[in-house]
Amino acid sequence: MLSERDNQLLTSIGPGTMMGNLFRQYWLPAMRSDELPSPDCPPLRIKLLGEELIAFRTTSGEVGLIQNACPHRGASLFFGRNEEEGLRCVYHGWKFDVTGACVDMPSEPAESNFRSKVHAKAYRMHERNGIIWAYMGDREVAPPLPELEANMMPVDQVSISVLHRANNWMQGWEGEMDTAHAAFLHFGATRPENTQPGSLQYYETKTRAGKFSVRDTDYGTAYSMYRPAEEDTLYHRIGHMLFPCFAMVPPFPLGGPATFIAYVPMDDAHTLEWNVFARPPSQTGPLPGQGNVVNGRRTGAGADRDYLPNGTGWFDRFNVTQNFQNDFMIDREAQKNMVSFTGITGIRQQDMAMTESMGTVMDRTHEHLGTTDALIIRTRRRLLACARALQEAGAVPPGVDQPEVYHQKSGGIILPRSADWWEATREVRERFLAPAPEVQTAG
User: Fold this and answer.
1) Closest CA relative to residue 1, chosen from 362, 359, 389
2) Per-residue model confidence as pLDDT tens digits over 115-138
3) pTM of the model as a whole
């Protein structure tokens, strides 16, 4: 059970907050590359860490992220003209480049040097394999991007999906920590006799309860939830919570496709959930559980999610038809007849129903955590400790300057009961198949 103060510290993410300052030490996924599809395309409203920002792609293809309000009179730069390497406010014609410098001020006399004194807040961006990352910190030289393997594979070998979640970021991230819920929320209607012997679902449905082993790492925390397999073995579900908001969960056998999830705070009440799956070059076709997206509708494997068209509002990106207002289209007959444990179609929609029903920002002072919540408890404590150390002593948080510590894989594996799961899986967990990390330029 958290104190009211610690609950607020964990969930408050805006400028000047303790957790917001921690997040600003890291690069964060801000938008998909195809949201700015071409040079000089229309600007995009982005809300990130409580700030209203405008993204644009210049004539040369560089991406800028700038404050929404023009420094002149406060009009929104969303309505600006994206032209000739800058974004021009249509109110008085002031123009800004990707650094926030005012490069043209046609409403002022030609001899005026006023433009050199005006600067818009702007953040550094880096585009890599389908994702545009933002660094909102104040270092003169930004740290390296995290070396998350799924984002380092060629873009044609990667599936990227994004989902708007109408609740605090921590509720989604803690949902990934709570791997025990999968046996109930997602697979509660599945019976062992209907699964393949030796598979994850077989052991998960055969023994729905499990035990946890949790440890601190150079990137955050790691865990194994283990259950009895055969007489002398255990089935381990191994995953990682990578600071500040990344997760690697175990949907595949350990050593399978590289994956990561990110819960990126838009503000205290809205989150963008990123799911990134990569596959080795030898594998073709849609990844398991991903399918393809055609005209906003997911087809093929995992065709359980219908997206609404993206709009231009702050929260109008990546919304699905199922939501809290329509009870996620729950089918009570399917639930009653155990066709579905929840009656809600879709793994992520089931998660959304749970996290949004907790309230926009969950009050953790009324929780009663059990032994299977060990990872949640450990990660909260570590995150708070790291945020306080940054605030009080300037201590650099885990992973900021060590991008290679993100070289991890998650997944399920059967091990002898006597095995140390961490050491026994080191080689396969740290196997990095992506091309050599790029050399980032300073800035």
Assistant:
1) 362
2) 899 999 999 999 999 999 999 999
3) 0.92
What are 49-79's pLDDT values in tens digits?
A: 999 999 999 999 999 999 999 999 999 999 9
Tell me the H-state helices in 240-367: 332-336, 347-357
- The domain 149-429 having CATH identifier 3.90.380.10: the answer here is yes
CB of 107 within 8 A of CB of 93?
yes
Residue-wise over 57-73: b if at least 16 C-beta within 10 A, else e? Answer: bbeeeebbbbbbbbbbe
For 27-135, which CATH class? mainly beta
Helix 374-393 × helix 169-177 angle, to 10°: 130
The tokens of 37 are what? 């599809």
Nearest to residue 23, comparing CAs of 306, 322, 244, 173? 244
Per-residue confidence band for 184, with pLDDT thresholds at 50, 70 and 90:
confident
DSSP class of residue 321 equals S
Choose among 309, 273, 282, 315: nearest CA to 293: 309
* 393-432 confidence digits (pLDDT tens): 999 999 999 999 999 999 999 999 999 999 999 999 999 9
Task: Burial-class residue 278 by CB neighbours within 10 Å (0-12, 13-18, 19+).
Answer: buried
Contact 421, 415 (CB under 8 A): yes
Please choose, from the candidates 241, 259, 61, the residue with its C-alpha nearest in 3D space to the C-alpha of residue 161: 259
Partners of 162 in the β-ladder: 274
Q: How far apart are CA 162 and CA 30, in angstroms?
A: 11
Residue ranges of alpha helices (H) inside 329-398 are 332-336, 347-357, 374-393
Diameter of the chain measured on Cα atoms: 85
